[in-house]
């Protein structure tokens, strides 16, 4: 969405920002694509994590405990369940 406020004018932007800001903690289940986080997770962090005094934005992620559940493709999934080799 283009315009003076860009994506911040979207009706769901404040909903996402408030949900993250008011949470006791965050648990994000995200896919790995090409050895990086999926674009949806990146977009959420960028949308709700921005701070800009001129637009009245303060990042919702500040002082929030966050943990991730990250999942990749088939090879990653099977190697995650393989036993550790003993030295």
TrEMBL record:
Residues 6-74 form the NADPH-dependent FMN reductase-like domain. Coiled coil: none annotated. SUPFAM superfamilies: Flavoproteins. Pfam families: FMN_red. This is NAD(P)H-dependent oxidoreductase. It comes from Deinococcus multiflagellatus. The lineage of its organism: Bacteria, Thermotogati, Deinococcota, Deinococci, Deinococcales.
């Amino acid at each position: 969405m283009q315009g003076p406020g860009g994506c911040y004018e979207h009706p769901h932007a404040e909903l996402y920002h408030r949900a993250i800001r008011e949470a006791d903690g965050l648990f994000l289940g995200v896919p790995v694509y090409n050895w990086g986080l999926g674009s949806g997770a990146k977009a959420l962090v960028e949308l709700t994590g921005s701070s800009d005094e001129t637009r009245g934005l303060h990042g919702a992620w500040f002082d929030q405990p966050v943990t991730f559940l990250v999942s990749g493709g088939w090879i990653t999934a099977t190697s995650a369940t393989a036993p550790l080799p003993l030295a």
